[in-house]
Amino acid sequence: MLIYNTFSNSKEVFVPINGRNVLMYVCGPTVYDLSHLGHARMGLVFDVIVRYLSYLGYKVNYTRNITDIDGKIVHKAMDLNLTSEQVARFYANAFAKEMLALNTVSPTFEPKATDYLPQMIDFIQSLIDKGYAYVSSTGDVYFNCKQFKEYGKLAKKNLNELLSGARSDQVRSQDELSKYKLSPIDFALWKVCDIHETVWPSPWGMGRPGWNIECSTMIKHVLGETIDIHGGGEDLIFPHHENEIAQSQCLHDKPLANFWVHNNFVNVKSQKMSKSLGNFTTIGDLLANYSSDTIRLFVLQNNYRHPVDFSPEGLKSARLGVGRLIQSLSSLENNIDWPDFLTSHAQQPVYPSLLPDKAKIINFINGFSFNNNDHESFVNEFEEAMNNDFNTAIAISKLFSLSDKIQAESDLKNKQSLAILLKTYAFILGFKLTDQTPKIQANVAHDLVNLVIELRNFSRTSKDFKQSDYIRAKLLELGIEVMDSSKDKTSWKLK
RNA sequence: GGCGGCAUAGCCAAGUGGUAAGGCAGAGGUCUGCAAAACCUUUAUCCCCCAGUUCGAAUCUGGGUGCCGCCUCCA
């Protein structure tokens, strides 16, 4: 299993610290607004990683935080005359619902920053005690970047470049900050502030923790001092993840994470989709128009490390593709005895511990007959693709090849076995492939009955009573009683 | 200005040394009273440009062009 590590900028063989157990932490959303497709991509990418690692037999502890302490949340709350907690809770719930609707695996743990204040304060105090952080004249606590020799290693930046390379149009109130900070690149661990309701007491005064400290602290307390995989969006590499490394490594004298995995953005007309640019499509809007499978295919046909360009055409193309996969499953009988791990993902959250591993999958597949080694070569090719840094695009192309094979297969039993293989491995990538043909709406059904009655009346006027009686009898079987009045008026009711 | 990434058919996209996956669209066909759907077959002599390394390059090296992201504020 090769995974691309941002730290080394190369694919590395994945070996967890502790045997089959994998500790994975992903930076979750800051809950001050609705999520957009960019967040969905993050959710889907790490969802596939959890699913596939579980397939390989790893027990994944998938922890994804909720950032519920943030200036944007405070501002939103003030605008709406709500508390920060109310705002955060609302958007955290919305996010959870959307992630479920996207058929993603729920995190094993989903810690919130507000639940870890004492631990963050301890963390900061320990950094001060070790000489890596200092209290400024204002009471703010800053991390002293110059104390950490490896600062900039993840983002491939060195201190001198950082000090000299700032964009001139970006610098704001540096003069002011320089009064409090030893170096301009030092970042806040604790910010003293007492004007809002969202503040906590600390040895340095009322205030809020800096953004970076929450992840370092929660990783330490939920997962441990060194974890296997740390993930998130590419925009977090610098400064967020760089700062996390600085904090945690200085405190523990060991690496924070062995693998750094970052997904790229969703672009709109070649520009990053983001809340601040206002060019986003919310997950809710998306789900109203496209199935979770469609969104998933759209996202997973791209390499997770490359940008994906959002377009209605792209989603439409994905929808047609999903339709083809579903079509090839039409040869499936309805009475397949699906194991729980393939069916229980309908409404309730699924946790990583419930995901099937390869042994379970193969055991299930082997219950069906294949007349050659098609299934083995499929599994090999699928795994080969996924083992190469989760190459979902190739893995998906194998699903389509399998779909073609199903259509071309004339032997019914074999056809069905291949269909089961398709459905099962699509599940490993998180696809449901359930028939999503829209159900007939009640009003359409009503018009439909009227249409049949109309056709029947054509028969009656041409005195084809054999046909009209047949239609009446058949409608009655469906629970629809037809009543002819003296004139051409015909009415019906549900019996 | 610094650092990083990307550039492959009409569109999306995989592929990091061995002769271009896959999806959508298009073309031809099967089926069909007609149509639609479905299925089958097919679609890049070539991978932004120039030079080089190599028996061999989309893939490596150097140079160029274009696009994107990050760069001490907020997170």
Provide key terms for this protein.
single chain; 495 residues; alpha/beta; Four Helix Bundle (Hemerythrin (Met), subunit A); 4-stranded parallel β-sheet; 4-stranded antiparallel β-sheet; 18 helices; 15 strands; 45% helix; elongated; RNA-binding
Folded structure, characterized:
The model is unreliable at 165-173 (pLDDT under 50). The chain is built from 18 helices and 15 strands. The protein has helices spanning 37-55, 71-80, 84-101, 117-129, 159-164, 174-178, 211-223, 237-252, 283-289, 292-300, 312-327, 340-343, 358-365, 374-387, 392-408, 412-428, 442-461, 465-477; strands at residues 2-5, 10-13, 21-26, 59-64, 133-135, 141-143, 188-192, 207-209, 227-233, 257-263, 266-268, 271-272, 308-310, 480-484, 490-494. Strands 4-3-9-10 form a four-stranded parallel sheet, with helices on both faces. By secondary structure, the protein is an alpha/beta fold. Among the domains are: 288-298 and 311-428, Four Helix Bundle (Hemerythrin (Met), subunit A) (Up-down Bundle); 442-494, no CATH class.
